[in-house]
Design goal:
Elements lengths: L4 E2 L23 E10 L2 H8 L10 E2 L3 E6 L11 E4 L2 E2 L5 H4 L10 E2 L13 E5 L3 E3 L6 H4 L2 H15 L6 E4 L5 H12 L3 E6 L5 H7 L3 E4 L5 H8 L5 E6 L6 H7 E9 L12 H6 L3 E4 L5 H14 L5 E6 L3 H10 L5 E5 L1
Parallel strand pairs: 10-11, 10-13, 11-12, 13-14, 14-15, 16-17
Antiparallel strand pairs: 1-3, 2-4, 2-8, 2-17, 4-5, 5-9, 6-7
Length: 341
């Protein structure tokens, strides 16, 4: 089959298009999917580059936002059914898995990520039968290919932070997939959104998503703007997917008793911050790792009901996965980048 595996970690040059990669053979608990689209995420870059102390088998195929069709009948699904894939892989036997908290399973990994299940940069992929989800008629294949990572993570953030009407939320990176998702979902719930951008070319895009105020972080100090906009009280919640370079700003920007969701390290993994400021404000800090299959089902129902449409920046053919990675790493996109099979 046609695929883009990696045979080692490294820069985008390790992504190798081949037309003779072995087609996977499912076992009795798995099913073969014919790919249609695969969405890109920063997880793809981290997997390609590798993380010290985490080992995966090579060759490995990245890509976790998988949409395709069934090649056979299964249960209530008929051959040719449009499906998206819940990307979480877990033991299915521990208490966390049985209680719908599979992301807390000791064996949890993400398909196409830093685990041993191949992902969606290929014509075909095998997935656990339990992970297939039907795509509602009101959601296109392209839209579906944005939901399983960025939008699921955003949904989990909104739930954990208990965002409600009139809450003020600080969102970093309005033009990225996760920032876009948090803005759209929080806005649908009636929240007030302060978002950040790195370039004024992204200003109109950020406002079009539902931002109430947009800060160009290269022109203005985020904390000073937050203080002015909230009259010194701080925001109710922060979505921090950057990490090292933003955690202090997040702590200083959130109100007393406010909440911060940590869900990425796009600006670095190791951070120093003043502990006293954190505990004296009685801030609640949440770590977010995508979400459960049940939460993905909730999300699909919510976006279908609210008619939330993700913005697609660009679509690349499988032969140009390297160019897609280059585009994502430059950070110039407005919305999601997809691979079309």
């Amino acid at each position: 089959m046609k695929a883009v595996p990696i045979y080692s970690h490294g820069n985008a040059d390790v992504l190798k298009y081949v037309d003779n990669f072995p087609t996977p053979v499912p076992n009795s608990s798995e099913i073969l999917i014919r790919l249609k689209y695969c969405g890109l995420n920063h997880l793809d870059i981290w997997t390609r580059m590798g993380i010290p102390g985490i080992f995966i088998k090579f060759p490995h195929i990245c890509g976790s936002d998988i949409v395709g069709t069934l090649l056979e009948d299964y249960s209530t699904f008929s051959k040719g059914s449009r499906v998206l894939i819940y990307p979480g892989i877990s033991c299915n036997n521990c208490d966390n898995c049985k209680n719908g908290n599979e992301t807390l399973c000791n064996d949890f990994s993400i398909m196409g990520g830093l685990g041993n299940y191949n992902g969606g940069y290929a014509e075909y992929v095998i997935v656990p039968k339990a992970n297939i989800i039907p795509i509602p008629h009101g959601i296109s294949d392209e839209q579906a290919a944005t939901l399983s990572i960025s939008y699921l993570t955003a949904w989990n953030i909104i739930k954990k932070l208990q965002i409600k009407k009139d809450d003020t939320v600080l969102v970093y990176g309005a033009s990225g997939g996760l920032g876009m998702a948090v803005i759209q979902i929080a806005k649908a719930l009636g929240a007030k959104i302060i978002s950040t951008i790195s370039d004024n070319s992204k200003l109109n895009f950020a406002y079009s998503l539902g931002s109430d105020y947009v800060i160009n972080r290269k022109e203005k100090k985020i904390l000073l703007e937050i203080e002015k906009l909230t009259h010194g009280s701080g925001v109710d919640a922060v979505m921090d997917n950057a990490g090292e370079k933003t955690i202090t700003t997040s702590i200083n920007s959130v109100r007393r008793g406010g909440k911060i969701a940590m869900c990425g390290t796009t600006a670095g993994n190791v951070a120093n911050f003043k502990i006293r400021a954190f505990y004296s404000k009685q801030i609640q800090l949440y770590g977010i790792l995508i979400g459960s299959k049940l939460e993905l089902l909730e999300l699909i129902e919510f976006v279908n009901e609210k008619r939330i449409l993700s913005r697609i920046d660009s679509i690349f053919p499988l032969t140009e996965v390297k160019a897609a990675h280059d585009s994502l790493e430059r950070g110039e996109q407005l919305g999601k980048i997809l691979i079309r099979l």
